[in-house]
Amino acid sequence: MIRKLGAKAHIAIGLAFLVISIVLAAGFLGLIPDREAAVRDGRIALAEAIAVTAAEMTARGQVDWLAPTLRLVVKRNPDVLSAALRTEEGTIIMQAGPHAANWTLNNADMSTDTELHVPLLSGKEHWGQLELRFRPVTPEGLAGWLFNPWVKLVGFIFLSALLVFYFYLGKVLRHLDPSGAVPDRVRSALDTLTEGLLVLDRRQTVVLANRAFAEFTGQPATELIGMNAKKLPWTDSKGGDFNLKAAPWAHALHDGEVHTNNTVHMRAPDGSLHTFQINCAPILTGGRQPGGVLISLDDITSIEQNSIELEKAKDAADSANRAKSDFLANMSHEIRTPMNAILGFTEILRRGYSRDGADAARHLATIHSSGTHLLALINDILDLSKVEAGRMEVEAIDCQPYALAHQVIQAIGVRAKEKNLQLDLVVDGRIPETIQSDPARLRQILTNLIGNALKFTEHGGVTVTLALDTRNDPAALRIDVHDTGIGIAQNKVDQVFDPFVQADSSVNRRFGGTGLGLAISRRLARAMGGDVTATSVPGEGSTFSIALTTGSLEGVRLLDDAALQASVAVSADVETARWILPKNARILVVDDGAENRELVATVLGEFGLTLDEAENGQIAVDMAQAKTYDLILMDMQMPVMDGYTATRTLREAGLTTPIVALTANAMQGYEQEVIAAGCTAYLTKPVDIDALLATVAHIVGGYREGTNPTSSVTKNVGEPSVPDRSAIPSRLATKTRMHPVIGKFVLRMREQMHAIEAAQRAHDFSTLVELAHWLKGAGGTVGFDAFTEPAAELETAARANDAAQSALWVDTLRDIADRIAAPGDTPIVTPRKTKPCAPAKVIGPVRSRLEANPRLHSVIGKFIQRMHEQLPRIEAAHRAADFTELAGLAHWLKGAAGTVGFDDFTEPATELEAAAKAGNNSDCQRWINRIGALTRQMTPAGSTIDITPSRAP
Ligand code: ADP
């Protein structure tokens, strides 16, 4: 039983006994007053006092007077039971209370606690005794023992000491560090564990916590000791209150079993919720219940997080997989449909099943439209996958939303005319003249939305409204395309933005389309920081809205409808373009596909050009070296020798003939590759006939019917007073990518024209020379060759301080400037909805400004030769990363080229020098490419290929 008592009780009992022993010792030493002895002494004193009185009375002979005294004593003292006087002979002569019968002692006996006798003297004679009978000092029997004051004292002190010590120890022990009992070495071993370790006693009070656990709670381990486990920040899995009764350690303490792999949660001091895997082992001390529990805690928060992430990733992968499967299923369906038509009708034609020519033409039209559809589908899918993969790069450059919308309407307005629909462009309030966006993408979105609106409308029309929405900051440009067409059912309005979704399954049959346009438009708009949304009422019409971020509008003019209408130029009709090509031009077509050669030969043959064909690079190299051509059209992927190698070989052999790459590779970066190989320009396959004609015309010196070979420059620049009032498109307008550059140029040009006029009025000839020089170079660079001649003339006149001539040329330039429209007039070719396809950077023949002087021809010739020697040195210096050498060569080029009139080199040489000095490898590469391309196009003075505008008379 004692063993079952706790340590605290043991100590308390021991201490209580100790106190009792001390009290008893004090009692024995007489340090504690004795009540019984005091009572006895009192009784003796009383007896003696009565005895003295009796002796006195006897001496006076008044013994009888003693009787009332005795009665008084008995009456007054409850302790005194009886009193009597007895003679020597044993006769009681007087008594008070029941005495004689109760008296037990003989005369010779000693007095006891209850019977006391005192001798009575008369003089010296002993004549009798006084007898007093008392109650016992302590009660008789067990009660007497129990009421013994010693027993009471000892009992009281023992019990109260026991209690006091027990509680006192309870308090004190709690504050004593039991972990001090754990040896230091063991402690530091426990502290090195990354797992948290906690020992609780039976009452779930912490008796030990290692460092890992303490660190987690953010409290020192010593603070945790003595704390009840319920005060620790446990939570349930969602951060709510934790049911402590269900705690695994409570179970372990209760059933004495080991509980493993339970999960508990705790909030860290920073508020984050952590998950622990815990194991609870009871500490068995031999008794029925465990004495405590050992808990190990493993923080598995990150593992849990990872598994959640993993789960999410798996879900995403699953849904991506499903989407891919759906996509493939859709794709194969989409491709099969037009394929069926192509193969079916081809077969019909092959077998000669068509009844007549008209029948055959219809079949061919179906085949052609199926092919076109297929191509559109492939382009859309390429676009979609690029945006989906985040590889679609969107630009944020100056672009003119009104001009863009206007161009799109111009381009596809013909469809409205065909269906007799109204197609309007309106501006609500004032909108910025330019915004920061991606013009090519915006054009694509607009083409799709306006195209859809026209497609799904039979009566009424389509209105495109531009407005500046300033409700939010930053402001947004809103373009609404509203139609009065068939509309879309309410539950389909959102779905039409999903790939391959068409609002109505009959749509495809009735209207065609891939169901990808809106998906692409929305994704593009979102990539540009905007969105495309739709509202629609079936049977009444739909409104598709584009919201676009505008970028900073600081310094941008806000124009109204009238001002914007005035700003857009009337443009030539693409569809009706006819080309005039020089009949004597010789062209080599290099392609391994006979059909492709045939197609090109047929198209160009129509124009009377002389065509030669080669079926691989090797044959082309041989032919090009044997004969002179004005242009080589080179396929890039061919057996035996590919186009890259052939071009490089020809360039290395010193051939300067323009080479236009034909490539089916629509992947990013191929442009640089073909240009680096030495090509002058490139066209993508399948070859768009308009793009092909534009490029060939550009290189061999052709022009579009209705325009003049001198690129719309006034026929005779000597007669500026009779100007041609038609709009002047940029030669690079075919290249969507160039539009922003052209746009920027136009803005800058307008400013510079004011400066030119001001300088001319002020007769500030040096400024005039500078400005004219800039215009001469910059205008040509962005394809406005019309500026080149008059600007050069102005420069000359200004140098000569000739005010009259200057004024004449300034007027001419003003006239040209007024006919230049905002970025990229309606492109000469709009081959596809998506880029790229139009000719890339076409570098025309590079000529010297000084070639008008025949005496300088040999100098120019020598420089060209020198340049062909210097180019490999420049390239070698770059390859060796010898930037000092590179900077030196660039510096030479900058000076020398300008001296002999090859101003085209000035900018790239200056830039190359700067890039070399800065050690900027990629910039160096860029400018070297440019210089290389210019070098290859350097044309000796007096040579015949000339596509630049005619010179002044
Ligand atoms: P496509 O026109 O090639 O089928 P889109 O993604 O451009 O693909 O359009 C998806 C569908 O949305 C169309 O098939 C048509 O059902 C619906 N839709 C788009 N624009 C309009 C519109 N202006 N009016 C009615 N329905 C439209």
Task: Please tell me about this protein's structure.
It is found in: Cell inner membrane. Residues 586-700 form the Response regulatory domain. The modification Phosphohistidine is found at residues 773, 891. By secondary structure, the chain is an alpha+beta fold. The protein has eight domains: 2-32 and 144-174, no CATH class; 35-137, PAS domain (Beta-Lactamase), CATH 3.30.450; 178-299, Beta-Lactamase (2-Layer Sandwich), CATH 3.30.450; 307-385, Orthogonal Bundle (Helix Hairpins), CATH 1.10.287.130; 393-567, Heat Shock Protein 90, CATH 3.30.565.10; 585-703, Response regulator (Rossmann fold, 3-Layer(aba) Sandwich), CATH 3.40.50; 728-821, Up-down Bundle (Four Helix Bundle (Hemerythrin (Met), subunit A)), CATH 1.20.120; 842-951, Four Helix Bundle (Hemerythrin (Met), subunit A) (Up-down Bundle). Helix content is 47%, strand content 16%. The protein is built from 29 helices and 26 strands. The strands form seven sheets. The chain has a six-stranded antiparallel sheet with strand order 6-5-10-9-8-7, sandwiched between helices. Strands 12-15-16-18-17 form a five-stranded mixed sheet. Helix 22 runs antiparallel to helix 23 (765-781) and helix 28 (906-917) runs antiparallel to helix 29. It starts with 6 loop residues before the first helix and ends in a 17-residue tail after the last helix. Bound molecules: adenosine-5'-diphosphate. Adenosine-5'-diphosphate binds at residues 448, 452-453, 456, 483, 485-488, 496, 502-504, 507, 513-519, 542.
